Design the sequence.
């Protein structure tokens, strides 16, 4: 009796991704050789930071519902910290170091030239994202991590109330970038 065939396995054809080119100069991407620095840098959070959690907790307590760290459907890499798609509001909680706060940022002594260029590029990227979101009809709110929670919640809630007065609580007042693609309805069988 022949051996029974094993479970079927499907083979997926995967096209290889092009390899990224390594930066050519140390000024564009310095190599971190110190293990302590490497460990410290790997623990930096992109989301769920303390200021963001405080804002989320207070807005949720006041009855606001939102998406967290959700990408937009327009294909950009912009991911607002809080997203209110029905109201068309995107909220960013910016850290003082990474977004180059004019009051609190101090450059590290090591690789100061690199960090200055990097942080300026971060600010320029933020400005590009803000402009693109505004062009698509979003209301953009940016707050600094050093701001008091009460001030941030009050200003954010004022924007949300103004947006809900315009869009209405039950209306789909979504910006263009959020609108899903129209799908044809399935026709009933036999028609």
Sequence:
């Amino acid at each position: 009796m022949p051996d029974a065939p094993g479970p079927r396995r499907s083979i997926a054809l995967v096209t290889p991704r092009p390899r990224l080119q390594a930066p050519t100069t140390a000024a564009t991407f310095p190599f971190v050789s110190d293990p302590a620095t490497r460990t410290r840098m790997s623990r930096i959070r992109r989301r769920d930071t303390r200021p963001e959690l405080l804002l989320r907790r207070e807005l949720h307590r006041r009855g606001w519902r939102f998406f967290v760290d959700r990408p937009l459907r327009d294909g950009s890499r912009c991911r607002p910290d809080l997203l209110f798609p029905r109201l068309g509001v995107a909220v960013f909680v910016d850290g003082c170091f990474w977004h180059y706060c004019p009051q609190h940022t101090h450059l590290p002594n090591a690789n100061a030239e690199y960090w200055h260029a990097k942080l300026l590029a971060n600010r320029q990227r933020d400005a590009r994202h803000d402009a693109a979101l505004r062009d698509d009809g979003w209301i953009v709110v940016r707050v600094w991590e050093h701001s008091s929670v009460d001030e941030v919640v009050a200003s954010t809630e004022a924007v949300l109330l103004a947006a809900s007065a315009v869009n209405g609580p039950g209306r789909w007042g979504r910006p263009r970038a959020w609108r899903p693609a129209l799908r044809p309805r399935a026709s009933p069988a036999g028609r």
Summary: Helices lie at 35-42, 50-61, 112-135, 149-167. The first helix runs from residue 35 to 42. The beta strands are 67-68, 82-84, 89-94, 139-144.
